[in-house]
Amino acid sequence: MFATKSGLKYIDLKEGDGPSPRYGQLCTFSYKGYIKVAGNSKEKTKPEMFEKDSGYLTKHGNGRLIPGLDEGLHSMKVGGIRRIIIPPKLGYVTSGLGPIPEGFIARYKLNKLLRDMVEKKGGQVIFEVELLGVIDEE
Question: What are the residue ranges of helices labelled H in 26-133?
């Protein structure tokens, strides 16, 4: 597992063989998003999935993704699969940052899990991401 100075942690489940995204490029990736709410030392909590998407498209570095996901994507290579463990300060701290689930029920579930993190004063946002492609924007 690799840890960055910001507190982000990740592990490459599969090393990609394509290019890494540069800021300003369009990136497409699939993901499964989970939230693990902090528990006491006796109880084990497992991450709960709130959303998955098979083809999310964004401009890398445009400030529209949660900071931890953007940071985790930056050093990936196309074709790679990475588990990104995001501390609360790099997660959903600002309203409107994605990825935001499309459906009402998934959004409700995400908001409930985020409230639980605040109440328990801890937790992590976890994404399992596969980088599908990067292209220059015209």
Answer: 67-74, 104-120
